[in-house]
Design goal:
The complex is a heterodimer. Chain A has helices at residues 16-23, 35-69, 89-97, 101-131, 137-150, 155-160, 163-179, 183-193, 198-209, 211-217, 219-230, 234-242, 247-276, 281-292, 296-329; strands at 74-75, 81-82. Chain A is mainly alpha-helical. The chains are: A mainly alpha, B mainly alpha.
Chain lengths: 330, 336
């Protein structure tokens, strides 16, 4: 579309950016009069909200919270808070004194590692399926994106916090185990008796047991993979077909390499999403320490430890995935 | 998938004839195709059922009378249908008020967020400026820092709000902004709301994919920066922006973290819902005149209803926007 099609009308925002950028002082140097400099100023204007917000509402609290984690915070009513330096005391508290933090941290990390892998595999498979042509595809897509709504915010945590629910789960599991209806447990027994490497199977069974959580957590990942799949030009498949490539080969030679860069994006998203979930027990513990016990310093230390672990995980997994993708595509 | 020989034999040719001609290849191919679609259908049905099932269970549990809950012969379909539970939940969550508050705060906040993130994303996608890489790294940082890390400091920040000590200088004290919606609107306008880094990232990806020739043509025709942005870029970006808006709205609707920290003076549905258990006992006590222990099953039932009530407006919204939503996301990838 071109601007010629439309009748030119003046708007209140015409020349707004130009006007504001004129106000920004600049040195009377020739370099600053160039088109490039002008565009740089306009660019800065566009990102200005973010820069302001980042400095005010992100960097400042971030630095303060880091400070808090190293100091003994006591609230003074009406006048803010006092924070004398306390060294690593809060970190010692988190690891040594708090009865639950260590345990929850280890548990959540192992759960996260397994869930991330499972989420990536599942969302990729589902995206491939949803990209095919079949009857009722629109409906299936609509349903698969529902978890974006259903698993957001408070919704996933609220029912598991209820004691009755947990109790019922326990009862259901016990009943299923005793009557032998639980297929996965039976299979698990069978396989462990037959002596097949049990560690791997444990992981797989854990995934199967967590399938509901995994499906509920993979809405966005499916969307990302699906958009990647749709960007692959059909002519590639046509060419492969003409050359006698089977669908299986086409999948590994075309689909997978084309979509694999998105693996990294999805992996990072999954890890972050998992770390910030409401039903995450480390988060619950931090909230408890902060709001119920009002130990602000200790809670800050805990969340920094948690954040550090998250960053380490993201770093390691992105390193592995980018290496793997590179070698796979060579 | 498989190009069968209809071209050569005409569509009405006998399947078995065609199979003979292809030396069994057609049969093999057809069986394979049917197998794949059966497996696919089973898998999809299973997974879809798993997603839908909790909603259905909640619905059926919600319209049961209390005695049906303890009746072991009643599992899925209620024997005694009642809407009384909904009335109770509505009262417990102060329904019309909290829903209305949720609606306007979510709308306000997500509109603010989308306006600012769109502008910022456009700036990142189209302009070269010094330190651009650094600022974009900050966007990535924004995505990966859990808001919980900074919540204490942020909380203190708004309880004793002050810009460069100016207020303290003039009025002698700092302002407590925690009781108004203003801090969160400010944060939304400066891209610091819930998952805003993600929206910046998504929109930037989109804007990067749009050919620059459109804008250049507009510039040559004498169109200003803002005019170009509003008239040339925005209309095309509408589906992507709309889906970001939808994300933002939905996530804000169900959010507890920011709501609890910044909107605590309003009755918001998500906070009402998360504290529903604590108010249940008092409610039943006043209703029946004596102190009662609410049975866990009953609690669970009422929570289920509350969750369902929270989801229903979103699901209705999703049903209406689903098509644009899905298509826009599919499209955002297709423009290289």
């Amino acid at each position: 579309m071109s601007t010629k099609d439309r009748k030119y009308r003046a708007h209140w925002y015409d020349g707004l950016t130009e006007g504001i950028s004129m106000l920004i002082p600049y040195r009377k140097n020739k370099v600053y009069h160039t088109m490039q400099a002008k565009r740089a100023r306009t660019g800065y204007l566009f990102v200005l909200p973010f820069i302001l917000g980042f400095l005010l509402f992100m960097l400042k609290p971030l630095v303060e919270s880091l400070q808090m984690s190293f100091s003994k915070v006591t609230l003074i009513p009406g006048a803010g808070y006092d924070k004398p330096w306390a060294g690593l005391l809060n970190y010692e508290y988190a690891f040594g004194v708090d009865p639950y933090f260590n345990q929850y941290l280890v548990e959540e990390i192992s759960r996260m590692a397994i869930n991330t892998i499972a989420t990536l595999v599942l969302s990729f498979v589902v995206a491939v399926i949803l990209n095919q042509k079949f009857k009722g595809r629109t409906l299936a897509r609509a349903i698969f994106f529902l978890p974006v709504i259903l698993s957001s915010g408070v919704l996933p945590g609220i029912e598991s916090q209820n004691e009755f629910y947990n109790m019922m789960e326990g009862v259901a599991e016990a009943v299923a185990n005793s009557s032998g209806v639980n297929l996965s447990a039976a299979l698990q027994d069978l396989l462990s008796v037959s002596g097949v490497g049990s560690g791997v199977f444990d992981v797989i069974f854990q995934m199967i047991d967590a399938i509901y959580d995994i499906v509920m957590a993979s809405g966005i990942q499916i969307i990302v993979f699906l958009s990647g799949l749709q960007s692959i030009s059909p002519s590639l498949y046509e060419a492969a077909d003409v050359e006698g490539c089977s669908a299986w080969e086409a999948f590994w030679k075309i689909t997978f390499p084309m979509v694999s860069p998105l693996l990294l994006v999805n992996c990072i998203y999954t890890i972050i999403d998992f770390f910030m979930k409401n039903d995450n027990r480390v988060m619950e513990r931090i909230n408890e320490v902060m709001y119920k016990q009002a130990k602000f310093g200790e809670a800050s230390a805990m969340s920094w430890i948690y954040f550090g672990v998250a960053i380490a995980f993201i770093g390691i997994s992105s390193f592995i995935i980018s290496k793997a993708v590179k070698t796979a595509n060579e | 998938m498989s190009k069968d020989n209809t071209v050569f034999l005409g569509s009405r040719a006998n399947f078995w004839d065609r199979n003979r001609l292809s030396e069994g290849y057609l049969l093999k191919k057809t069986i394979g195709r049917i197998c794949i679609s059966v497996v696919r259908a089973l898998l999809l049905f299973g997974l879809c059922f798993m997603i839908i099932q909790p909603l259905l269970t909640r619905f059926s549990k919600g319209i049961m009378e209390e005695r049906d809950l303890y009746d072991s012969t009643v599992r899925l379909l209620p024997r005694h249908v009642t809407l009384d539970n909904y009335r109770i939940v509505f009262e417990l969550t102060s329904f019309p008020t909290s829903m209305l508050n949720t609606f306007w705060t979510s709308l306000l906040v997500s509109v603010c967020q989308i306006i600012s993130t769109t502008l910022v994303a456009y700036g990142f996608a189209r302009y070269e400026f010094p330190l651009k890489k650094f600022w974009f790294a900050c966007v990535v940082l924004l995505i990966i820092v859990p808001p919980q890390t900074i919540q204490t400091a942020l909380y203190m920040n708004f309880v004793n709000f002050d810009i460069l000590g100016l207020f303290k200088l003039f009025t002698g004290s700092t302002i407590n902004l925690r009781t108004s919606v203003l801090p969160y609107v400010l944060m939304s306008l400066t891209c610091m709301g819930l998952k805003n880094g993600l929206y910046i990232y998504m929109l930037r990806q989109y804007f990067k994919g749009v050919p620059t020739s459109l804008e250049e043509a507009a510039y040559v025709d004498g169109c200003g920066t803002m005019h170009t942005f509003v008239k040339i870029m925005l209309p095309d970006a509408f589906p992507t922006i709309a889906s970001c808006f939808l994300f933002s709205f939905v996530w804000q609707w169900t959010d507890l973290f920011y709501t609890r920290n910044f909107l605590s003076s309003y009755k918001i549905y998500s906070t009402e819902m998360s504290t529903i258990v604590s108010r249940m006992a008092r409610y039943f006590a006043t209703e029946q005149g004596t102190a009662v222990v609410v049975p866990d099953g009953r609690q669970q039932q009422l929570i289920s209803i509350a969750v369902l009530v929270c989801c229903i407006p979103l699901i209705i919204l999703y049903c209406f926007t689903q098509r644009t939503f899905v298509e826009s996301l599919a499209m955002s990838g297709s423009k290289e």
